[in-house]
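User: Could you walk me through two proteins back to back? I'd like the raw sequence and the structure tokens for each, with a short line separating them so I can tell where one ends and the next begins.

Assistant: Of course. Protein one, sequence then structure:
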Amino acid sequence: QVQLVESGGGLVQPGGSLRLSCTASGSTFSSYVVSWYRQVQGQARELVAHINTAGSPVYYAAHVKGRFTISRDNAKNMAFLQMNSLEADDTAVYYCKAAVGWDEYWGQGTQVTVSS
């Protein structure tokens, strides 16, 4: 079992950048595939990016490709989502998920608000 804590969210102007962090504890983080999701209130949670155990391959949703970068540091039990050129439509709660086999674990989420 793994516990996840997201951090790094906040208020940023359009065109700005944020770096989200996901800190894991409780298990062998390197065994887990890590994903970032986001959710706007009243809407379904959607996949933003995904990174395999060793750091590749990675996947990006079409609407963030070229702007967001997912990475991980297994030695530090952390994963990251670098978000550049942020747009108002990126406003959401961002969640980190770690999965292995049929097991998956979620963090509590961090709010990202893009507004002028």
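----
Protein two, same layout:
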Amino acid sequence: QVQLVESGGGLVQTGGSLRLSCAASRSIFSLNLMGWYRQAPGKQRELVAIINSGGSTNYADSVKGRFTISRDNAKNTVYLQMNSLKPEDTAVYYCNGGVGIVPGPYWGQGTQVTVSS
């Protein structure tokens, strides 16, 4: 079992940046798939970005070129750098982890990101 805790959300203007962090309660070295999801009001939760243990990444088309996912196994932390934010990025962002399946079984509690126009 592993607990994931997100931080770094907040209110930002269009074009601004935020960096989300996801701290795990134990080593994430064995969690080969770590990702960020988001859920806007009235919408389904969607995959934003995912990273495997080798550092390979994949992004939703809507965030390509603006968001960057990274992981620091030594710190048991996954990051999501979000640049050039748009109002449509407003959502609750969730960290997720697992082994071999997407999404994995481990979820954080979520952090709110609000982008004002």
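The mean pLDDT is 95.

Let me know if you want the two compared in more detail.
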